[in-house]
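Researcher: Let's try something more involved. This one mixes different molecule types, so please make sure each is placed in the same coordinate frame as the others.
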Amino acid sequence: MRLDWDARAKENARYYVQTAKEDWTDEEFFASGRQTVSEEILTDMINICQGTDPKQMRVLEIGCGAGRVTRALAELFGEVHAVDVSAEMIAQATAALASTPNAHVYQNNGMDLKVIPAGEGFDFAFSSIVFQHIPSREVIESYVREVNRLLKPGRLFKFQVQGDATLSTTADDTWLGVPYSDAEAVAMAERCGFEPRYRHGAGQQYFWLWFFKRA
Ligand SMILES: C[S@@+](CC[C@H](N)C(=O)[O-])C[C@H]1O[C@@H](n2cnc3c(N)ncnc32)[C@H](O)[C@@H]1O
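Model: All components are placed in one shared frame. Result:
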């Protein structure tokens, strides 16, 4: 995964992060991150914040790429910590976030969150257009367990997996990830200590999951 994503990042990081354009300007690229936040976060503040002032919240992001969404998350929340498997993506995210002192990015090993410094726990975790590229159930479930370890009880991990089982995938394909059915997503939540309270888009490429950490 690291080799493939480093190669993509060196070729054209912003395109592989968001394939809507090949030649993103800074302004367009970060506006698209704000759009993701406005569609997936600002519409869902009751589940995400649960009454807490966003500026008091610590947020975790998995697969931050070149910092597109990370920057928008940092505009809204108090503190953001984000990981990515690719050193090249992390280099680009670090540059993009140079003037954003409340955002912290880390290169990780592609399957757990040990690189995140111990703290008082996270209030919200988010991952978008990342697990849809991961070919291994073991890796995805490792992340779900790791988020459970780091989240405060009752808090939300909102993320998206690949839900279309008709698309053919292979174990070494790091572009089209392993598909999850609704039943498989529910079973994973239960195994990892989450309540799978809402699911949207089962059977589709964009299968969104709302996992609340059990108390
Ligand atoms: C399509 S990009 C999306 C980036 C970001 N989420 C966004 O929306 O702008 C997918 C990102 O996931 C990262 N990634 C892929 N597999 C990963 C893994 N196993 N662990 C952590 N990051 C991974 C890639 O390096 C890449 O930066």
